[in-house]
Model the fold of this input.
Amino acid sequence: MTFSLLLLAHWIGDFGLQTSNMALNKSKSLKWLLLHVLTYTGVLLAFSAFLISLEDLTFFVGVNGLLHGITDFFTSKLAHRYKDIPRRFFPILGFDQLLHTLTLYWTLQMI
Done:
């Protein structure tokens, strides 16, 4: 149940609250990437506060926020390069989501 709720938090933070400016500009601007990562991390923190012990919360949210930013730094640049080639663009987005999901799972197992 905890992992399912964390996936919901991930969806809200990564898609639901991502503005068009974030989505379109995070590949070109550290400002927009940082705003996206802070939004994502804030949502993850809000959910995790009810699911994870306080002693593990900083590690879990911190590592996920950091790795989310690193992942998006690279995958957003690659996705932007292929934005007009759906056959390449969508697998990149899928790989991005796979990495985020594995990160959530891995860090949850560590605590």
The mean pLDDT is 97. Helices lie at 2-16, 20-25, 30-48, 54-81, 86-110. The radius of gyration is 14 Å. The chain is about 85% helix and 0% strand.
